Each structure stands twice: as C-alpha cells, then as structure tokens.
Amino acid sequence: MTEVQSSPQLAEEHRKMFEKIAEHAEEMKKLMTEVQSSLQLAEKEHRKMFEKIAEHAEEMKKLMTEVQLSSSRVCKVTLPEMAKSVARVIDGLRSRYNIPPTRV
C-alpha cells in the first residue's frame, strides 16, 4: 500500500470493508435466529418437564392420601377385628379342651 491511496483504490477498500460488515451482520442475524429458536425449544421442553413434575407430585399426593386412609383402616378396623377373631378361636379351643378362662 502506498502512503496516499488514490480515490478509486480508497473506494474499493471501503466497498470491501462494507461487504465484510454486511456478511458479518448476516451471519449474526442467522446466529441470533438460531439462538432464539433454541431458546424457545428449551423453554418448551422446560414447560413440559415442569408439567410432568406437577402431575407426578399430584399423583404422589393422591397415593399418600390412599396410603394414609388404608393404614388408618388397618389400625382402627382390621387389627381389632383380628384380635376379636383370635379371641374367638382361643375361646373355642378352651371350650373344646375344657380349659377354664384365665383371669388377668
């Protein structure tokens, strides 16, 4: 390059620089579009995961409620029923073998 460029050379250099700037701007525009669509996809997937987690949490709540109800029934109804049944069997065996009831 010479110290002083002629006007046509200077114009050519400016044109090349503007072309490069335009190319970079176009590449940046494409990149921004890709980033934006990737972000939208990530947000969509995040929402799906959040909804699944919420569904599973709700199912767990229902399951825990059912378990509590079942365990409550076992404690309040089934165990006393079993105790009465065992007492009847013991009374039946005592009666069969003529064993007097013991006092507690």
Automatic annotation (TrEMBL):
Q: Does this UniProt record's set of keywords contain Coiled coil? A: yes
Q: Which UniProt keywords apply?
A: Coiled coil
Coiled-coil intervals: 14-66
On whether Coiled coil is a keyword of this UniProt record, the answer is: yes
At the top level, the lineage of the source is Eukaryota
Checking PANTHER family in the record gives: KINESIN-LIKE PROTEIN, OS08G0180400 PROTEIN
> Per its record, how is this protein called by name?
Uncharacterized protein
